[in-house]
Amino acid sequence: MKSKVEEQVIYPKDLLFAALQRWRGMLALGLVLAVLLVGLPLLQGLGSNKADSAAQEAYAEALAKYEEDVASAQQVVERYKAEVAEQQRYMQQSELLNLNPYKHYRGMLAVYVSIDDVLQPDKTNQTYSAAGYLLSAYSIAVSSDAAIEEMAKAVNMEWRMLREIITVEADGGTATLTVYLSHSDQAVAQKLLGIVTERLEAARKEFQKSIGDHELVVLDSSVNLVSDANITTVIHDNQDYLNNLKENLANAENALKGIAAPVQPQAGGISLKKAVIFAVLGLVAGAGIVAVCAWFRHMESDKIYSARLLHLRTGVKLLGTLPSKAYTGIDRMLRKWEGRDMADPEKKAALLACDLRYRCGAGETVLLIGTGAPEERAVLAQALTDAGVKSLDAGNVLESTEAVEALRSAQAVILVARCFRDTCTDAHRQMQMVSDYGKQLLGCVVLDG
Description:
Elements: H1 12-20, H2 23-44, H3 53-93, E1 104-114, E2 118-119, E3 127-128, H4 131-143, H5 145-154, H6 159-165, E4 166-171, E5 176-183, H7 186-210, E6 215-226, H8 230-257, H9 272-300, H10 307-314, E7 318-323, H11 329-338, H12 345-359, E8 365-369, H13 378-386, E9 390-395, H14 401-408, E10 412-418, H15 424-436, E11 440-448
Parallel strand pairs: 7-11, 8-9, 8-10, 10-11
Antiparallel strand pairs: 1-5, 1-6, 2-3, 4-5
Helix pairs in contact: 1-9, 2-9, 3-8, 4-5, 4-7, 5-6, 12-13
């Protein structure tokens, strides 16, 4: 046995769990500090229910500007959405953009306007040809908005889609009028060519009365399968335009999302964000204060923290640890993580008693000593009795004369010490007294709890 109590050795693990074992105090103090940090600004603002007037006016101006910017940005977004939708609908319905550039039908109608030059009776030395006027008139007859709309209805097509696939060319030098039209369906192309021919014939009858006698000679009227690479360029241009509209729409939507609303000034209060921050700071501060206090208390305390530290400081032989009570919940989890004995107290006491039966001599009476109450050693004493070992609970040999008298007549002694209550100094004094009386100290049983 060591002659003196060694200086306490500090282990980081012990410091950690010495603080964690006081988790209730950490939580309680943390909540108190959190309430104070959040509540003080609220209490300070009870005398003022209105925010600063200057701040309120600035907020009103910022809010008006925000609403104006949002409305303007929403208009831009809606405009681009409408343009994107219209372009997509147009590209889906357009006959020109849905043509196969390398395989579609083209109809051609070429007519010659036949008319003799006429000398005006009221003019001298002047002639003129009516062919130019007739070519313009016929061109209008098949390419005006009214004519295009009427022909579009005949083939169940939107008028602007038809205008894209029909072209009228007038050549005054040769007095010819040529009409081109394209379509993916040969039958529709032929039908449209027939409608154009009918309109020209109907116009001829009217123009003979108003302009003069003339004839229309059909030079060519046919529908053929052709290819036109220029259509590819038109398709790509429209797709690029659609992509540009979508990009503008995305930029407008991002601009709308990026408009930040002004923050309303608080009236005698605290923002939610600050309240959360203060609450967390309060919890952390409370936990930190309790942890620091626990560390200082652990470092300065002479009380038995664990069986291992008792052995290091006093050199006593450890017979084992005996859990003094059952733990549940967080306490049980923390003690398990720390490595403390979590066995059933009665089963562990029976195991210790069985071991002590073989350590004691036959017929020897084991004396139990300790500074605690007899009830704390009752489980061990009963286990010794059940194991067939004679035992006597003497109690505190440092204070009781009866305990000292029992020690003088004892044959074997067991020291029972309890963690977190008994001190290493008292345990060492009891060990010294046993040694002074020349008695055999079997060892120490540590009550952990």
